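Attaching the record inline, Q. Sequence:
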Amino acid sequence: MESMNILRVDASMRRAGSRSRALTDTLIEQLRETHGSISLTQRDLSDGVPFIDAPWIDANFTAPCERSSEQRAVLARSDALLSELQVADVLVIGSPMYNFGIPAALKAWVDLVVRAKESFRYTDSGPEGLLKNKVAYIVLVSGGTKAGADIDFAWPYLRHILGFVGITDVRLIASDLIGIDRATADAQARSAISALGI
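Structure, as predicted:
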């Protein structure tokens, strides 16, 4: 059986005691059991991810054949992150909800991989995503906000931006309202993960 390429992106700034990391561990194991053979690339955003700046923007909007060695160096990290996403069959993002949205590090990762002519392109009929035929799982943990509620700006954003680059099969595994009822939230998330093997 051909190995499934999985890119795991952890956005929690906590390593110990992180609910999103624990649930993402469980999801990865479920995908391994279901598929049988996986190749896993892990990207931990708590290690640090740069924000785009003026030199990055200038380099990104310079034609590849015209980029200086300095500009290529500026884009090297972005190129590496984008390459990880391009070769993945499955994207797994584990993230807490910070102040009703995604962590700054996850937004920085998005900014580095959502690039015109690389992960999407403009056409006469509008933008077209170039990262097609992939599945994304979003493991989202929140303390007091219901996933999908009007004040949840994390899940709708991630679903939209992934769809923008062509990943339209985006599945949510929510462990929400853990500040109110942690046991129920955890049980619901684990039940959703277990159902993937059916």
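Helices lie at 19-35, 54-60, 69-87, 104-113, 155-164, 178-194. Residues 136 and 170 are 5 Å apart (CA to CA).

More tomorrow.
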